[in-house]
Design a protein that fits this description.
Length: about 325
């Protein structure tokens, strides 16, 4: 499944900011970023913002005459790798193919301006960015074809496979709906988000929530069936000693979706807090903290419920730290 999003960019400043945000939604390397757009559409501005997001410490300039430039990525998941910037504007189709083919062994990020000069896109993981003039600004379309994503039907099959309780399914679906709303808000403010990856991660994030179930913490009237208990026992044997977040990540790796597992693995509460490098990781963490079963609530309400349910447990003393963490993520994402 290919992920896509569209954004209207009213200014060069926003175009650069969107480029910076691309650095916070990278999951697989090597990857090729394909840039398309007419002269003056903002390709170089976008790429300069992307370089800033990658913490490249020198100015990125168009390599139209040199054909290529190389930079060292300073931070993030690609730290220490190379950013290769190619410009195909002056080249014929055969020349463009030769230049791009010579860098097929690169292991970092390859950015290709004037990618339509190629007769066909390069093999491997790609992120295609197209820019065109629209009204007084630009329209950006991003197509992410770099990580595998399951269909919603697969989510439902997995839920049946583990006999996920109905109330947990409802919770996952409400978190997914809230995450989609929040993602649209970020897109309108110049932040790239992968909507399908975020949705799939939210729909499956509590797939193994039953591994952490404790007496008294379930919704009123919830009763385990014997077949359900036997199924859960088999999964506990499959992922011994794991809480639901790492167990779900391991399951997704086993099924061929490791990047989705990276989004899910860090959505929970832990100290020290896990590093959340991507915007999808942060959005899932935050959306999950805004939902009590199937009700969207404030962070204050969510953590009041947390304290009421776990007040006598060893995690109660960590409440304030986790609440502060959720508030910090909210401010980071939305300036709240």
């Amino acid at each position: 499944m290919i992920d896509t999003c569209n954004m209207w960019l009213p200014s060069a400043e926003i175009t650069g900011a969107v480029g910076r945000s691309l650095a916070r939604t990278l999951y697989r390397f090597p990857v090729t970023v394909l840039l398309a757009g007419d002269v003056g559409a903002g390709k170089t501005t976008f790429l300069q913002g992307f370089a800033q997001g990658l913490h490249i410490g020198e100015p990125v300039v168009s390599p139209t005459f040199a054909l290529e430039q190389r930079y060292v990525i300073g931070a993030g998941p690609a730290a220490g790798r190379e950013l290769l910037h190619l410009d195909l504007y002056r080249l014929r189709t055969d020349q463009a193919a030769e230049l791009v083919g010579a860098s097929d062994d690169q292991t970092g990020i390859r950015c290709i301006e004037w990618a339509p000069r190629l007769s066909h896109p390069p093999a491997g993981s790609t992120i295609a960015i197209s820019l065109r003039d629209e009204r007084a600004g630009r329209r950006l379309t991003a197509v992410f074809d770099d990580i595998p994503l399951p269909a919603r039907k697969t989510m439902d099959e997995w839920r049946e496979e583990v006999m996920l309780p109905v109330h947990v399914r409802r919770h996952c679906d409400v978190v997914a709906a809230l995450a989609a709303t929040l993602a649209e808000r970020l897109l309108q403010h110049g932040v790239l988000v992968r909507p399908h990856a975020l949705a799939r991660a939210a729909e499956v994030h509590d797939l193994f929530r039953f591994l952490d179930f404790r007496p008294g913490a379930e919704p009123n009237g919830y009763v385990d069936g014997e077949q359900q208990k036997e199924t859960w026992a088999r999964w506990r044997e499959r992922y011994p000693g794991l809480k639901h977040e790492p167990a779900c990540a391991a399951f997704l790796r086993d099924r061929g979706y490791p990047e989705l597992g990276r989004i899910v693995e860090v959505h929970g509460l832990a100290l020290p807090s896990p590093e959340r490098q991507t915007v999808e990781q942060r959005l899932l963490f935050y959306a999950d903290k805004r939902v009590i079963i199937d009700r969207i609530v404030t962070l204050d309400e969510r953590f009041a419920d947390f304290r009421a349910r776990y007040g006598n447990s060893k995690t109660a003393s960590l409440h304030d730290a986790w609440f502060a963490e959720a508030q910090a993520v909210e401010r980071e994402l939305f300036g709240a």
